[in-house]
């Protein structure tokens, strides 16, 4: 009981710090308009093009669930566990769903799933089309590298207080990595993580391609992995809502897709992203 109380005090402390940061006024000296950074292209990927997976599978599959949503705990997590599949949950740490369902997130980590870093506040560049929903004080294009890096590091501290783990991966909200004056913050944080999804420059494009499906069928999900599996590498599928919340797919489509992956484990290595990238890094060192 004492440990649980202590954990909750730490979480509350970090949460209060996060909220304090949220209310700070962000001042910058330039209003340069950056372009949206995209994942690695064929020209950028320059080293490893092929990996031999643990049981000679054709391809690795990283299923991730972004934004710390109720539907992740209610629908996605039970389905993953039923099929014996491990995934990565990228938590936006200021979300009330993290604080309100803390023990469930902690249990997910104990079940073998990764709790990944998706920042505290999910800041994105407001300069992109269709980004009116981004709050002015979270507009990445008006923030500094120091500001953003401090937020991401605090998110890591928050995650450590939840799962006690030092190694994890990062998925940039909206895929955006540029701040004021079009500066990238990736170099400032790359040593903080095992990998940064979509931006592994030593890997070819088949390792960095991302897909965030919305309102698709199981057949479309299955067709995608069958097609992309031909290229080897890592198939990165980023879910948001599952049977609810925003940018969602139905529970029926999701469950049938997981059943397909579980049935074909000899073909697909379905694993949390940090484990996939630690395995790749081990291959790179040989």
Please characterize this protein's 3D structure:
It is a single chain. By secondary structure, this protein is an alpha/beta fold. The chain has a single domain (2-26, 35-284), classed as TIM Barrel (Alpha-Beta Barrel). Helices cover 37% and strands 11% of the residues. It is built from 9 helices and 8 strands. The strands form 2 sheets. Strands 1, 2, 3, 6, 7 and 8 form a 6-stranded parallel beta sheet that branches. Strands 4-5 form a two-stranded parallel ribbon. Helix 1 runs antiparallel to helix 5 and helix 2 (70-82) packs parallel to helix 8. It starts with a helix and ends with a helix. Residues 17-45 have low confidence and may be disordered.
Annotate the secondary structure layout.
Elements: H1 2-22, E1 59-66, H2 70-82, E2 88-91, H3 96-100, H4 102-110, E3 114-117, H5 145-163, E4 169-170, H6 186-189, E5 195-196, E6 210-211, H7 218-228, E7 234-239, H8 251-263, E8 268-270, H9 273-284
Parallel strand pairs: 1-2, 1-7, 1-8, 2-3, 4-5, 6-7
How would you describe this structure in keywords?
6-stranded parallel β-sheet, globular, alpha/beta, single chain, 11% strand, 9 helices, two-stranded parallel sheet, TIM Barrel, 286 residues
CATH topology: TIM Barrel
- Give start-end ranges of low-pLDDT stretches: 17-45
Q: Which structural class do the helices and strands define?
A: alpha/beta
The ordered string of helix (H) and strand (E) elements is HEHEHHEHEHEEHEHEH
Estimate what percentage of residues fall within beta strands.
5-15%
Largest sheet: 6 strands, parallel
Helix content: 25-40%
Gyration radius from CA atoms, angstroms: 19 Å
Overall shape: globular
> Count the strands?
8
CATH superfamily: Glycoside hydrolase/deacetylase
Number of helix segments?
9
Question: How many discrete domains?
Answer: 1
Let me know the average pLDDT.
87
Please give the alpha-carbon distance between the first and last residues.
46 Å
CATH C-level name: Alpha Beta
Judging by the overall fold, what is the CATH architecture? Alpha-Beta Barrel
């Amino acid at each position: 009981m004492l440990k649980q109380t202590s954990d909750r005090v730490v979480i509350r402390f970090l949460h209060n710090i996060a909220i304090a940061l949220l209310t700070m006024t962000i001042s910058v000296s330039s209003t340069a308009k950056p372009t949206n950074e995209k994942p690695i292209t064929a020209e950028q990927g320059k080293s490893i093009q092929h990996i031999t997976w643990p049981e000679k599978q054709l391809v690795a599959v990283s299923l991730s669930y972004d934004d710390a949503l109720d539907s992740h705990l209610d629908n996605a997590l039970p389905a993953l566990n039923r099929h014996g599949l491990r995934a990565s949950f990228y938590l936006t740490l200021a979300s009330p769903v993290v604080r309100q369902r803390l023990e469930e997130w902690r249990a997910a980590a104990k079940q073998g799933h990764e709790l990944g870093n998706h920042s505290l506040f999910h800041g994105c560049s407001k300069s992109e089309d269709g980004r009116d929903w981004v709050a002015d004080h979270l507009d990445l294009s008006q923030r500094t590298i120091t500001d953003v890096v401090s937020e991401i590091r605090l998110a890591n501290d928050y995650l450590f207080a939840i799962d006690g783990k030092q190694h994890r991966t990062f998925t940039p909200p909206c895929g955006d990595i540029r701040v004021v004056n079009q500066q990238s913050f990736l170099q400032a944080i790359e040593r903080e993580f095992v990998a940064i999804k979509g931006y592994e420059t030593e890997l070819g494009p088949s390792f960095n391609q991302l897909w965030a499906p919305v309102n698709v069928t199981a057949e479309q999900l299955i067709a995608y992995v069958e097609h992309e599996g031909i290229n080897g590498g890592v198939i990165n599928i980023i879910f948001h809502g599952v049977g609810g919340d925003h940018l969602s797919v139905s529970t029926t489509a999701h469950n049938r897709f997981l059943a397909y992956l579980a049935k074909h484990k000899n073909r697909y290595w379905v694993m949390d992203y940090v484990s996939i990238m630690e395995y790749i890094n081990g291959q790179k060192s040989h």
